[in-house]
Amino acid sequence: MTGELTAVDAAEYADRLRRVRDKMRERSLAALVVSDPANLFYLTGYDAWSFYTPQCLVLPAATEPHLFARAQDAAGATFTCNLPASRSTATRRSLCIDPTCIPSTGLPVPRGT
Description:
By secondary structure, this protein is of the alpha+beta class. It has one domain (10-94): Creatine Amidinohydrolase, Chain A, domain 1 (3-Layer(aba) Sandwich). The chain has four helices and four strands. It has helices at 10-26, 37-44, 71-80, 93-97; strands at 31-34, 56-60, 66-70, 88-91. It has a four-stranded mixed sheet. The radius of gyration is 15 Å and the shape is globular. It starts with 9 loop residues before the first helix and ends in a 16-residue tail after the last helix.
């Protein structure tokens, strides 16, 4: 079930995903990672005022999108987002403040060039 307070109706949401996926196919993209708050809103209806923390949407070309955000934001998104709660994952707080890892993944930051 999606949020009861969604900003975007289901038909508009489906059309937005379709249009973005059409562009992805044109560019042969298997997935898109979105982190800009305006684009998060466009693709989910999630009003991401926590843009100062690591958060992103992974939009695969063929399967459902998945939102990654800190715990309180992932929980809040379930009320306003066009994604069901099962498509939203809370990231660990330590990833928000640990300079040695990539936010939302826990992978080490690559060193050198």
